[in-house]
Specification:
- The structure holds two protein chains of two kinds.
- By secondary structure, chain A is of the alpha+beta class.
- Chain A has a single domain (5-191), classed as Alpha-Beta Plaits.
- Chain A contains seven helices and five strands.
- By secondary structure, chain B is of the alpha+beta class.
- Chain B has a single domain (25-129), classed as Alpha-Beta Plaits, CATH 3.30.70.1350.
- Chain B has helices spanning 25-37, 49-61, 96-115, and strands spanning 42-45, 73-78, 81-91, 118-129.
- In chain B, strands 1, 2, 3 and 4 form a four-stranded mixed sheet that branches.
- In chain B, helix 1 packs across helix 3 (96-115).
- The chains are: A alpha+beta, B alpha+beta.
- At the A-B interface, helix 5, strand 2, helix 6 and helix 7 of A face helix 2, helix 3 and strand 4 of B.
- Strand 2 (108-111) of chain A pairs parallel with strand 4 of chain B, so a sheet runs across the interface.
């Protein structure tokens, strides 16, 4: 129950006379009787006590309904906010994350992580090869690419160099539009078809 | 568009008052965003943090829907010159260098034709969708 007469009696206003209902009863006592389902004859018939009991039921309804409610914003709003904020914060491009593109029509730049993803994707498409990391540095317009790969067991490692280099150079030129001057390849692991 | 502050119109009777026209930053940004979205290979524009948060606020509190979106485009107009910065997304299969140049040409042409400003377009490709 919301009100405890014993707690109220030890509260700051303990020695103040509590204003009774018009019928002379203490509202807190009536509320407690109502909560326990032990109303006496007077309380059942008295309009003042009935009003106090109705108050108790009203408060009870509000408190318990609010306690059971999950005050969460609608999921669509929450999703929208989180998605937008996370997207923009994680995707906020810093100047060092950008590669310069050679454009005659003005300054043009490309996200370095996006370029690395394109090159990794190109290597992933090769038979028997998977790309792991890809680091791109830029010197003037030329790119230096350091890529680590894993190879399927049985793939001729001697030809890996030539194949990956060719793929990276071609992807750099065709997909990115930036010439690749140097490719460093590290084979870091082997895998096998199950 | 707004009149340049400080321009004092002459009010000689019978003569046309002296009038100046200044094109605002947001006008240029909206035009640039619209032109960029029309370039083949542009998958979208990426709003910066401010624009994204304002966009979220707009969806929560309701916003005017009849304005051209300027997300991903910012512009600064000074005198007869506009500096436009665009952040675009593209798809794998479009050459990034060629796409950037195509966006610069399209935006420069459209903004220049509409406003009469000299335009410099700075393009950043933020992501390549795979």
């Amino acid at each position: 129950m919301a009100l405890d007469p014993s707690a109220a009696a030890t509260g700051p206003g303990a020695d103040e006379q509590i204003e009774p209902l018009a019928c002379g009863r203490d509202a807190a006592v009536v509320w407690d009787h109502a909560a326990d389902g032990m109303l006496d004859e007077h309380e059942r018939g008295c309009p003042h006590c009935a009003a106090a009991i109705a108050d108790a039921h009203g408060l009870d309804g509000v408190v318990h309904r609010m306690a059971q409610e999950q005050p969460l914003p609608p999921p669509s709003l929450m999703d929208t906010v989180m998605e937008a904020v996370l997207d923009t914060v994680t995707a906020e491009l810093r100047p060092q994350d950008l590669l310069a593109l050679d454009s005659p029509a003005g300054p043009a730049r490309l996200s370095r992580p996006a370029a690395a993803r394109v090159l990794r994707h190109a290597v992933d498409r090769m038979d028997g090869m998977r790309a792991r990391s890809c680091r791109i540095e830029q010197d003037g317009v030329h790119l230096t690419v350091a890529i680590t790969v894993t190879a399927r067991f049985g793939v001729d490692l001697a030809s890996v160099t030539a194949r990956v280099r060719q793929m990276v150079v071609a992807a750099g030129e065709q997909a990115l539009g930036a010439p690749v001057a140097r490719v460093d390849i590290t084979v870091v692991d082997l895998w096998d078809e199950p | 568009m707004s009149a340049t502050p400080g321009a004092t119109p002459r009010t000689t009777p019978g003569a046309a008052p002296r009038t100046t026209l200044h094109v605002g930053d947001l006008v240029v940004a909206r035009l640039a965003a619209r032109a960029a979205r029309g370039v083949p290979g542009v998958a979208g524009l990426r709003p910066d943090l401010t624009q994204a948060l304002l966009g979220v606020a707009g969806t929560v509190f309701g916003q005017q829907r009849d304005t051209l979106p300027a997300d991903g485009a910012t512009a600064v107009v000074e005198g007869g010159h506009a500096d436009v910065s665009l952040t675009v997304l593209t798809r794998l299969g479009h050459n990034c260098r060629d796409l950037a140049a195509a966006v610069q040409r399209a935006v420069s042409a459209e903004v220049g034709a509409y406003t009469g400003l000299q335009v410099t377009v700075r393009v950043t490709i933020a992501d390549v969708l795979i």
